[in-house]
Specification:
13 helices, single chain, mainly alpha
């Protein structure tokens, strides 16, 4: 069956669900953040090599920018999570749609549609509601790093969209290679008990590797901003998995925010599927 826009929307929702499982597994791993970065990226790199099976890797300027965005998005977010609250980090990172609008218009000449603006009008207040129970302005530097992580994620989206007619997955391959090299010295220093190994294997294979393989396929058939809006499901589902496994309970305002954002994202996805 040939790939089309409707299939791409479904694939992006699957990718968002996989990505959202990262928080609960990262919480259960006892390693330091740089070691988690390196271990997860190393496993994901193997997944990408199996998927792409590149006979030769062509390095272009777009792929270099995308790989740098990928590496810094992960590194900055992990650092931000250590320096500020998890709520601040995830909320500030997911101001990403704002940067995708700007970069998408400037680089891709993709004019935002009315449905995009309507979705954003619900998503941003909804996310504020979601984190209103624990949105504190401590850890100023951590907050800045989380914002920069959102900018880096927007760079990934736009670069993969630019590379959609070639092989956007190569951007992720390069990004994982860079992240694994940075985290390798920290990874070697950690203890390799069974549970940590199993958790990192899941994170690299499914939460990161498979999720971005799916994303690299779907991004060829959907606009950058719409893909970002669908992936906003990740920060909403992330704390829900944490609650189910670790019993870390979201507050009432957070649940209202989750309902608003999920409705907005699914509404935009439905509108996209109706377009021809």
């Amino acid at each position: 069956m040939p790939m089309n826009r409707q299939h791409a929307v479904v694939l992006l929702i699957v990718a968002a669900v996989l990505l959202s499982t990262g928080g609960v597994f990262i919480k259960m791993i006892t390693w330091k953040a740089p070691a988690i970065l390196g271990g997860r990226a190393l496993v994901a790199l193997i997944v990408f090599l199996i998927y792409l099976r590149p006979k030769r890797l062509v390095i272009t300027r777009v792929r270099m920018f995308g790989a740098a965005g990928y590496m810094f998005a992960q590194l900055l977010f992990i650092l931000a999570t250590k320096m500020t609250t998890a709520a601040n980090a995830i909320f500030l990172q997911y101001t990403m749609p704002i940067y995708v609008i700007l970069l998408g218009y400037w680089v891709l000449q993709e004019k935002p549609q009315k449905a995009d603006w309507i979705s954003l009008a619900f998503i941003l207040p909804g996310m504020i509601l979601f984190f209103a129970d624990d949105l504190r302005f401590d850890g100023f530097l951590g907050n800045i790093l989380a914002i920069l992580s959102g900018v880096a994620m927007a760079v990934i989206v736009v670069c993969m969209r630019l590379d959609r007619d070639a092989s956007p997955g190569h951007t992720l391959l390069l990004g994982n290679a860079a992240a694994s090299l940075i985290g390798l010295p920290f990874l070697i220093a950690e203890s390799f008990d069974v549970w940590n190994i199993l958790y990192i294997l899941y994170l690299g294979t499914f939460q990161l590797g498979l999720a971005f393989v799916i994303y690299s396929i779907a991004i060829r058939y959907i606009q950058a901003l719409e893909s970002t809006l669908i992936l906003t499901l990740e920060p909403i589902l992330n704390p829900l998995w944490v609650f189910l496994v670790i019993e870390e309970r979201p507050g009432t305002m957070a649940l209202w925010g989750a309902a608003v954002v999920i409705a907005a994202v699914l509404g935009r996805a439905w509108a996209g599927m109706k377009q021809r």
